Amino acid sequence: MSESAQPASALSSPRFCNTGTFMRMPRVESARGLDFAIAGVPFDTACSYRTGARFGPQAIRAISAMIKPNNVIQQVNIMEDLRGGDMGDFPIVPGYIHPTYAAIEAGMTSILDEGAVPIVLGGDHSITLGELRAVAKKHGPVALLHFDSHSDLCDEVFGEKYNHGTPFRRALEEGLIDASHSVQVGMRGSLYDPNEHQMAADLGMLLIPNHKVRAMGFEALLQTIHERVGDMPCFLTFDIDFVDPAYAPGTGTPEVGGYTSWETLELVRGVKDLNFVGFDVVEVAPPYDHAEITAYLAANIVFEFLSILAAKKHQA
Ligand code: MN
Ligand code: MN
Question: Which of 8, 22, 32, 178 is most deeply packed, by most CB within 10 A?
Fold first, then answer.
């Protein structure tokens, strides 16, 4: 590996200097020769309540300067085992979802064609549809592993088909995800349609709401996820509102009664054996954050995911 692929060390360069990329990694123009590429998708105009996730990528990148490369729990050094860089943000068009989808698909395709794993920083959850279009073009329909307090399976919101409440309904219709290997975890809160969870089952999805996760426990949950996904190519999409707003207040549509930061990191580490082909963390809305805690958690979720990739590469 070349010297230029290394992030700056905080022992010689203060963490608040030269920020702007994830973990102050090198800014790259393409994913050529990389194992993973970070990309921002600062689009938030498909959000139904509080906007602000357009500032998610820059907030996550800024506080990610606190993260060091060694993960002592997963026992890897992500920059020793992986080559990675930050491609900046895809050229989204605020307020215009279809040109934005085209930009996301093109950017994702450029990463996937180089054989790198895309790591996307959102943005509201509508963006994941654009990502999945590129991922499915490369890998065929993938298993979706979806952490969220919402199912995002609505058919329409405000009479519109493309919204942060609809991406996975569209992904199913477009054949981008394989429902029979997909899992949605953590759904909670009040609903318009009391049969929403049954609707997910009718679409072939396995939706495990928050109250059932609490009843079954994490060990049984992780076993269920592994049995369901198997060795299918898997895309992990992480909506930060999965986490309790006490730990992640900076988000557009919060739901109380969620998970702690520690539980969240434990769950991400717990799915390390799956065959991941892509990842995103979405719905970080810095205008509603306090002391950057939401953005910092999102950065650490990315770090745990990168550690999973590093451990796989290390074993290979
Ligand atoms: Mn969502
Ligand atoms: Mn959500």
Answer: 22
Q: At residue 155, what is the residue type?
A: D
pLDDT category of residue 4 using cuts at 50, 70 and 90: low
Centre of ligand 1 to C-alpha 126, Å, is 8
What is residue 92's predicted lDDT score, i.e. its pLDDT? Answer: 96
Q: Which ligand is nearest to the CA of 152?
A: 1
Q: What is the dihedral of CA 107, 70, 146, 100, to 10 degrees?
A: -20
**Averaged pLDDT for residues 125-150:** 98
pTM: 0.96
Distance (angstroms) between ligand 1 centre and the Cα of 152 equals 6
| 169 CA → ligand 2 middle, Å | 14
Query: 238 alpha carbon to ligand 2 midpoint, in Å?
Result: 9
Output the CA 98–ligand 1 centroid distance in Å: 19
Q: What is the mean pLDDT of residues 75-101?
A: 96
Instruction: Report CA(37)–ligand 1 centroid distance (Å).
Output: 22
Query: Which percentage of the chain shows pLDDT scores above 70?
Result: 98
